[in-house]
Amino acid sequence: MTDSFVVTVAGAEQISPNLRRVTLTGEALRTWESTGQADEFVHVHIPDAEPAEGWEDDHDIARHYTIRRWNPQVPSVDIDIVTHGHGRGASWAREAVEGDAVAISDAHGYYSPPEGSTRRLLVADATGLPAVARILEEATPDETFDVLIELISMDDAIALPSPATVNVEWRVSGNGRGPSALVSCMERMDEPEGDVYVWVACESAQSRRARKFIKETWPRHYTLYRIVGYWHVDAEEQLRKWEALTDAQRERYMEIWDENRPDEVNWEELEPYLQELGL
Ligand SMILES: Cc1cc2nc3c(=O)[nH]c(=O)nc-3n(C[C@H](O)[C@H](O)[C@H](O)COP(=O)(O)OP(=O)(O)OC[C@H]3O[C@@H](n4cnc5c(N)ncnc54)[C@H](O)[C@@H]3O)c2cc1C
Fold first, then answer.
1. In terms of domains, do 51 and 152 share one?
2. Are residues 187 and 247 in the same domain?
3. Which of 33, 158, 181, 266 lies 20 to 30 Å from 74, alpha-carbon distance?
4. Are 19 and 153 in contact (CB under 8 A)?
């Protein structure tokens, strides 16, 4: 992710008690390109510092958000933000008003069901709901989805229109308010058969538990699942542990994460290394 697009807030609206939609617009979006992947996301540079070289990866000033909708004709993009307590991103979403300037990066996505497969299992907490909504909206009528979503409140259970066949289970748990039930719910499901594509997006410790569960209980080819950690419940502690690593340990981490390999293949080596490091 290298490019930076300066845009302005066109409007913000509460779409449920804990989810706020911010619409961004600007001429710069005429050259912004969608990846076409329905869970695509950008880094949003939250103002009060000038975007500097490499700002996309700087958690001091930038946050990841899913592109919930892209309207190339306007041009505009919508992002739906969980307004969870403190946090630069959450506070910005709460306070955003028309005309506020931000920068966004180019887009990157993970959701890639193999060609020919039509059945999916989507598992997410509130931060993954915008991606789930877009995945379902952009699906085709021959697709079938089982969806498990963990919310802060049932009042956040937004409509999920789709041309596909969709079965949704909503739960109130996790999301930083209490223990997540996502993996225990997965443990009670029947193993997805054949070429069902499994996509999981949630808090990072839960996403790692989900990966361990899938590898041990629903073993499948790496092309048939994608699991993404969206946030850390213990973010400050994780950062402290990361900063305490030696240069050699960080270099080893970077070596393992080989951009030329599929992410889930990288994870096979990364997970044991993270455990060795106590991360
Ligand atoms: C690919 C990708 C796509 C994402 N898409 C979205 C999206 O569309 N909408 C969205 O809302 N989020 C999304 N996220 C998650 C979002 O980037 C994180 O939640 C981010 O940490 C929020 O930043 P913040 O400044 O509000 O909080 P931070 O400053 O990062 O954290 C401050 C404190 O809040 C806690 N915290 C952070 N996020 C949450 C949360 N969601 N619930 C409860 N506590 C939290 C942290 O543990 C920390 O203690 C996505 C993440 C990724 C990786």
1. no
2. no
3. 158
4. no
Give me the amino acid identity at 196.
V
Residue list, ligand 1 pocket, CB within 6 Å: 41, 63-66, 79-82, 84-90, 127, 130, 175-176, 228, 230-233, 235-236
Cα–Cα nearest to 229, from 266, 199, 204: 204
Q: What are phi and psi of 177, to 5 degrees?
A: -100, -10
Percentage of residues in the chain having pLDDT higher than 70: 99
Taking the centre of ligand 1 as the mean of its atom positions, its distance from the CA of residue 230, in whole angstroms, is 7
pLDDT digits (tens, 9 = 90+) for 179-202: 999 999 999 999 999 999 999 999
Q: Cα(187) to centroid of ligand 1, in Å? A: 26
Same domain, 131 and 174: yes
Q: 159 is in which domain, residue-wise? A: 110-233
Residue 217 and residue 225: Cα distance in Å, rounded? 13
CA distance 107 to 1: 7
